[in-house]
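Task: encode each sequence below as structure tokens.

Item 1
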Amino acid sequence: MRKTTPGQAITLICRATAARDLFAGDPRNSADRLAARRTFRSLLAAVHPDRTAATGQDHARGAAARLSELYADWQQDSTPGPHVIGTHGTYPLRVRLWADERVACYAGAEAGVRIELDRAAGGRCTGALGEVWPDVALSGMSSFLPDIIDAEVTGGRGWIAYRVPPGMVSLREVHAAYPDGLDGRDWAWMLRRILMTLATARRPHGNLGIDTVLIHPDQHGVVLTGWTAATGGDGPALAELTDTMLGSGDPRQSRFMRAARHLPPERQLAEYNLLLRHTYGRRRFRPFTMPDPNNSR
């Protein structure tokens, strides 16, 4: 650590996603505490303003503050808790957001970070997002997928860490806010973007549902998470999703999706566009809001 340059120290600190990326061992152990203290002092000395060029002093001050936060976190962390370690960092598994028989999804320590973990050893379900990314990104639709941070195999179980944009909510949250069903025009923009993503990905999703589809209400954004090894086509899942989100509010869309359940996504999208044009006319932006949970309804 004594030979670490200011630039190397700043990079090391800024890339740390958790305290254990910098400080190892158990804070209850005296030898580990001594080693962590030496690491902290060495890195802090490396980012001291006296060792940093004037143009980089703001970065150095930010790194020093972040270093102090991580050191304090490590000192307080007597129980590391469940986590996975990848190429780019350590990712604590906080609250479980959803799970099925193959994959469990957890919130990470940072806002917007999620970790999807195969529930069975030897599984590679979570590798599907990395396989889908190139085709979707090359088509200019990378914003419809989460940003991959890291991926690895730990204890024989594959996992992937990714970041979703701020302001996203799951369809489960939307359904809870509108339990009687969405207006068909609101579901139309959500479903169109889902179909656009599936058609561009050129492979089934494998785990499409109210937990894995995220939307941005104000910006009409859609992000598909939960990509897993496919077990069949997307049609049945989309038909069930449409029934759930619309309730009895728009039987035309529900009937269409049930009838089109065996068509590939690109064909579903083309025919769905015809249905929407016939039903609602020319497309117009329709504001969509989520009720404020702090206000009584």
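Item 2
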Amino acid sequence: MNSVLKLLPILFVTFTLITCQKTKSQNLNIMANSEEYYKSNLSDEEYYVLRQKGTEPPFSGKYNDFHEDGTYHCAACGQKLFESVTKFDAHCGWPSFDQAIKGSVEYIEDHSHGMTRTEVVCSNCKSHLGHVFNDGPKDTTGQRYCMNSISLKFKHK
């Protein structure tokens, strides 16, 4: 019985530390998914495209004519989205890929601007990346992920 009483303070401290750590982690996740977080951590242009579903002007993005080896990540949360080997020149004015990394994006039916398209968003933070079309390279997937450069961050291999 005496040994059990000696262990109680240790168990109490351990439980308290675990509970506090979990709460801190949960608070960071909530903060990372709040619009205030994005407003304070993204430029006005990034916020417009990523969070308000805007589009950058064609041929203006830094990754439109960019051909280096590495991976493209979500500019809002850092999730890996595309491998450079899937990038191709679609001559459309935006960086284009024929496939996303499995599970990295979600698809939303988009009826804006008088047309029906498929919007592509980051599966982690739900930020707008661009749209996917069925006019990509026929020798691979036939898909063209037409992405906004500003929604991407490139990391070299």
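Check on item 2: The radius of gyration is 21 Å. The longest strand covers residues 105-110.
End of task.
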